[in-house]
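INTERNAL AUDIT FORM
Audit reference: QA-55
Scope: verify that the stored structure record matches its stored sequence.
Auditor: D.O.
Record contents follow.
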Amino acid sequence: MHDNVDKPVHYNSSPAVCTCGRRIECIDVAKHMNFPLGNAMKYIWRAGLKGEAVEDLKKAIQYLKYEIERIESNGA
């Protein structure tokens, strides 16, 4: 039985593997980023696993735009 809250199929389908043999999921990386960058990375990583890949990539672009706006507004 699938756990659609904690471990949805599209969250656990990464082919990425650490040199130690452990599978790497995008949350392992995204949890170390701020919200906009983490979400952009998650949409890119999982593009097409739950729906349309182009829609996922457009969502990633929107989160990148949020991050660019944040950086530009802070003068950083």
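Auditor finding: record pair retrieved intact. Helices lie at 26-30, 35-45, 53-74.
Action required: none
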